[in-house]
Amino acid sequence: MPIRRLPETLVNQIAAGEVVERPAAAVKELVENALDAGARHIDVVLRDGGRALIAVTDDGCGMTPEELLLAVERHATSKLPDDDLVHIASLGFRGEALPSIGAVARLTVTSRPAEAEEAWALSVEAGRLGEPQPAAHPRGTRVEVRDLFFATPARLKFLKTARTEVSHAQDTLNRLAMAHPHVGFTLSDGERKLIGLAPAEGELFDARLKRLSAVMGRDFADNALAISAEREGIKLTGYIGLPTLNRGNAQQQYLFVNGRPVRDKLLYGAVRGAYQDFLARDRHPLVALFVELPPEQVDVNVHPSKAEVRFRDPGLVRGLIVSAAKHALAEAGHRASTTVSDLALGALRPANGPAAGTWGAPQGTRLSRGLSEATAHYAAPLGGNHGHGALPGLSGAPAAAPPSDQSGVHPANSNEGVVEGFPLGAARAQVHGTYVVAQTGDGIVIVDQHAAHERLVYERMKDQLGEKGVARQMLLLPEVVELEETAAARVTARAEELAELGLVLEAFGPGAVVVREVPALLGEVDVQGLIRDLADELAELGEALALRERLEHVCGTLACHGSVRAGRILKVEEMNALLRQMEETPHSGQCNHGRPTYVELKLADIEKLFGRR
């Protein structure tokens, strides 16, 4: 067949296939146009998941009848005043959205500029352009898209259920709302409001946190660390969540470049690198990061939907994110997320919730008022001068050496003032040989001794490695560890790198290694178990990466074997020493796998559990 020029309608339908693959994509394009028009309020309505209707109404600058006609032509835009694709300062600039949508749907655009006395409406149906008509409309623009893909029915088969399509539109609108906190957004399906975000007040940083709280939830706002860093003209701001606030997927990671929501592999990789010391591989942090840089340093024209970008210096951007996030996490110290205590309290509450006087009574029953008051009086805390009725050991102080028995529960006695000044309080007891219970000024802290000490050992190993290498401890008798031949070869091939981490070993025949030195921090260690775990770890890491690049995995394995084991009875001095080291060590609020090392319960919350509030 001879080469020929395709009809304009078919060209627009092809463009629609790239720009408008589903209703959420149409919502994105139309809302971005509204933002570029200076809108302060944007309302979106979807019916049947966007198939029957997508309506976007804004209070932006509006368009004249002449501009309406240009707006539905391909590659017509007001957003490239100098015809320069390098200096792009707007969200939409391709000029394809409206004509592409009009090629596959019934499109009506109604608009009125601020200075005009009347509005005008223009319709496009499957690419056929109508004439502008007078209409009634306030200042701004309303775009209605009806019967999406009616002109290309095959595309309808690829759409999901209405609920799924609405959820995609919600995510799209939420991302744009986070990038523009001073703009109000609503989304409804014609019957109920799915999103209702009022314009956030105040400075951008404060307004952004309010908007993030409204979208990502109060838990994120309560456990977010502020990020503000700048390097060579690139500015990074936003908030990142504490490692103990994590999810099983990366859906709550929101990344923005010059106000544009993006899904960029480089940025996601930088976030993963920043948290690699704190989270297991299948857990993901919650973040909202905003990168601002000169337009000439980023290309936003590499993807039809502008979801991906290309940086002129990707290493600089990645390094800025990793270093800023790690600095914020280090500044957080031993802090863990409040969701840890919330989950603990939720597990303690009865299914129907506590009520004063109901403990021990059948579900759904209440004690009489008189009996309830008598019970409350009986359960009231003892005063400071409680005389001969006091139970021994319950009024003791946190730092005195307690008598211990075979039960593994250690009561404390005198010297109350030790609690003051210590965020994690002072040790009161150890229970089940695993958990240290400490009293703080306004509650209690329960510490997982193994997880906490594992993090402490790990951080000390990292510090030593960065300074002069991990200190070693020579074994009195070298220990031979038998492995499969391939596993032994894997371990000995990395002997030089393991020596930097304080583990000195060498081959001992075809299926064994001999260990001569171990990291001094580990103390008494199960060498057999350690080497076998390391062999498994190296099998997962593969041969391509140096151990220093995967430091968190190898050091994590070493630290696990060198930490205080569950089941070991601790003296009160050891328990308090553990608490003090946690307070002084960055990241001690979570173990190497992102699990919390301690749970803090406030006295007010505990009182609620017992119906005292």
Describe the structure.
- With 613 residues, the protein is α+β, with helices and mostly antiparallel strands.
- Strand 1 (41-47) and strand 2 (53-58) form a beta hairpin.
- The strands form six sheets. Strands 1, 2, 3, 4, 5, 6, 7, 8 and 9 form a nine-stranded mixed sheet that branches.
- The protein is elongated.
- 35% of the residues lie in helices and 22% in strands.
- It has 19 helices and 25 strands.
Note the main sheet. 9 strands, mixed
Specify the number of helices: 19
Distance between the termini: 84 Å
Provide the helix percentage: 25-40%
- Number of distinct beta strands: 25
Low-pLDDT windows of residues? 352-417
- Name the overall outline: elongated
Rg (CA only): 31 Å
Strand content: 15-25%
Q: Tell me the structural class.
A: alpha+beta
In terms of quaternary structure, the protein is: single chain
Question: What number is the mean pLDDT?
Answer: 80
